[in-house]
Amino acid sequence: MTLSQSLFVIGLLIAASAFFSMAEISLAAARRLRLRQMADEGDARADRVLRMQEQPGDYFTVVQVGQNAVAILGGIVGEGALSPHFSELFALWMSGPTAERAGFLASFLIITSLFILFADLFPKRLGMAEPERLVVRLAQPMAWCMTLLRPLVWFYSRGADALFRLLGLSSLRDDRITSDDILAMMEAGARAGVLAAREQQVITNVFELDTRTVSSAMSPRDRIAFFLRDEPDSVIRLRIAAEPFSTYPVCEGDIDHVVGYVDAKDLFQRVLNNQPISLADDSLVRKVLIVPDRLTLSEVLEQFRQVHEDFAVIVNEYSLVVGVVTLNDVMSTVMGDLVGPADEEQIVRRDEDSWLIDGVTPIEDVLHALSLDELPHTGEYETLAGFLMVMLRRVPRRTDSVSWGGYKFEVLDVDSYRIDQVMVSRLGGPSGSAAPSPSAPAVSAGTPV
After folding, report:
1. Which of 58, 76, 247, 283 is 20–30 Å from 221 (CA)?
2. What is the pLDDT of residues 251-309, one digit of tens each?
3. What spatial distance separates the first Cα and last Cα of the chain, rounded to whole Å?
4. In whole angstroms, what is the distance from residue 315 CA to residue 324 CA?
């Protein structure tokens, strides 16, 4: 062949190799969710690609056969076409054998560089950039290649399958999508600006409903406004005015004997109609949903759905009331730190390195605020107060402190053994250079007050 014919053949071989490289990487990088969406929109090519992804063995066999055959032919044609010319050029300065070796080396470097650049790097980067758009266009030509090379495809595919079976490996692609995969995609979308940071946080909170217990969202026992069943009309009216809520548990004797609940709308209707309020009236008191304190928030939502209620009383293993939860409490957990105007923020950031946190704040919210992955003895407590009790091994007193993970947790106020306020400070400033090792928490005991 003449030099021009050899260069033309080399160009065709580079194009063929680029085709196989692009077909390989685009199929591997194509997202099944996007392909499924394209198939649902009527694109038959996307449906073909989905079937290829389910059984990709024959597809990749054709790719490897094609790439290796083209690479061998490219080496043969390139060496025969370019080496003599380079040898003649180098013979002007070198002896015969040396010029031949230099010509072969120059031919090898040029052909290899052309294949690496135009048959490998460029097509693969292009395939990674737009995998779905390219793979649907290349699927039909690849199907023709699989038909044309069927005997070779069968031989090599069966050999590869035998190796997989011998090694006890699966050759099927695992397309299961976990919650971690979805969260990773949401994080990537937020970094790319496609998803707002608030939207990403809401989605993350939704997945946490399966891990957060109802205790993390409830109103604790000491904050429950309730009625006794035998309380007179005047006391009920005063209680409504002093503690306005949408729902009130109704108890027999004390708070641990809940017999139902009453809706504030029903009470207001009686007040507006100048009717007396008597909780002995069974038509006024509704049946209450009782749930254990170990349920997750997702399980509580399911219970709300089943009984068509949005209010529940939470009890512990000793049948003692520990709190109440509403549908709004659960949704507030999903929405993160979006609070209504009448709500009190449990976490207040004072400056760059310190926070003022309520003792009953759920530990998950504390972790989010401090950008921590976990705290010691996870599972033994639900709130920041519980964390301090576990770390101190006693009921905390004012000025008690615990240092862990680059933060100092100091008790500021205790009311009847209840931790009201905790000051959390970053140790060593923003860099945290003075922070102790997370594996060795520091505990400081305060003085009795």
Report:
1. 283
2. 998 999 999 999 988 888 888 888 888 888 888 899 999 999 889 889 999 999 999 99
3. 100
4. 9
Q: What single-letter DSSP state applies at residue 115?
A: I
| Closest of 360, 343, 339 to residue 245, by C-alpha | 343
Residue 253 CB contacts under 8 Å (≥ 6 apart), including other chains = 228
Locate 264 and state its tokens: 């504030």
**Which pair of tokens denotes residue 114?**
């052309």
pLDDT in tens, 298-337: 999 999 999 999 999 999 888 899 999 998 888 887 776 5
Q: Distance between CA atoms of 277 and 235, rounded to whole angstroms?
A: 10
Q: Compute how many other C-beta atoms are within 10 angstroms of the C-beta atom of residue 332.
A: 17
Q: How far apart are CA 276 and CA 229, in angstroms?
A: 14
299: which 2 tokens?
Answer: 């399980």
What is d(CA 103, CA 93) in angstroms, rounded to the nearest whole number?
12
* 3-state helix/strand/coil string of 263-312: EHHHHHHHHHCCCCCCCCCCCCCECCEEEECCCEHHHHHHHHHHHCCCEE
Whether the Cβ atoms of residue 311 and residue 329 lie closer than 8 Å to each other: no
Cα 384–Cα 385–Cα 387 angle in degrees, nearest 5: 65
Residue keyed to tokens 């699966």: 170
The rounded distance, in Å, linking the Cα atoms of 100 and 413 is 89
Task: Determine the Cα–Cα distance for residues 368 and 346; give it in Å rounded to an integer.
Answer: 13
Strands 311-315 and 289-292, bridge-based pairing:
parallel
CA distances from 372 to 138, 180, 363, 406 (A): 46, 18, 11, 10
Tell me the pTM.
0.55
CA dist., res. 115 & res. 79, Å (int): 14
Residue 116: name the closest of 16, 18, 230, 234 by CA: 18
Sign for the CA dihedral angle at 238, 243, 246, 247 comes to negative
Q: How many CB atoms lie within 10 A of CB 202?
A: 15
